[in-house]
Amino acid sequence: MNEEKGGFTVADRRHFDADGTPRAVDQAPAAEGRGADKMPPRATLADLLLSLAAQASLLLRDPGAPGEGLPAPDPAGARQLIALIEMLEDKTEGRRTPDESHLLEEILCQLRLAYVEQARREG
Questions:
Q1: 10 Å Cβ neighbour count for 13?
Q2: Cα dist. 61→5, 15, 47, 95, 116 in Å?
Q3: 8: DSSP letter
C-alpha cells in the first residue's frame, strides 16, 4: 500500500512572546483565511461597565415587556451586578479617566433608579 503522507504546517498564533511580552500587531501571525490580520482590540473598563450594565438592565426590565427567550426579570441578580459595578468603582478610584468616571456615575445612577422602580412594581 503506497500512501502519500500529507505535510502540515504549524503556525504560532500566540499574541505574546515566550517571555510574556505582547507581540506587535505586524509580528503576530495571522490566521489565514479568517481575516485575523490584527490582534483583537484590547478590552477597556468602559467595555466591562457597559456589559455589566446591559446585563443588569435586562434583569430589571418590566415583566410585561416583550422578550421571548429572555430570562425572567430578577431584581436580586440585578442588585448583585450593581454591587459588582460599585466594587469596581471603589477598586478603580483614582485610576479612571474622567470619561470612565462619568460613565460609571451615569450607569450607577440609571441602574439604581431602575432597581427602585422594579421594587415599587413588585410592591
A1: 10
A2: 59, 39, 21, 32, 12
A3: -
Cβ–Cβ contacts within 10 Å for residue 119, how many? 12
Q: Please, which residues have CB within 8 angstroms of residue 77's CB and are 6 or more apart in sequence?
A: 59
- The candidate with the shortest Cα–Cα distance to 15, out of 40, 34, 33, is 40
C-alpha cell belonging to residue 5? 503522507
Long-range contacts, stretch 9-16, CB < 8 angstroms, 24+ apart: 15/39
What's the mean per-residue pLDDT of the chain? 83
Helices 75-91/45-59 angle, 10° precision = 160
Instruction: Dump pLDDT digits (tens) for 7-66.
Output: 777 777 777 777 777 777 554 455 454 555 677 888 999 999 999 999 999 999 877 777
Report domain extents, the chain.
Answer: 9-41, 45-122
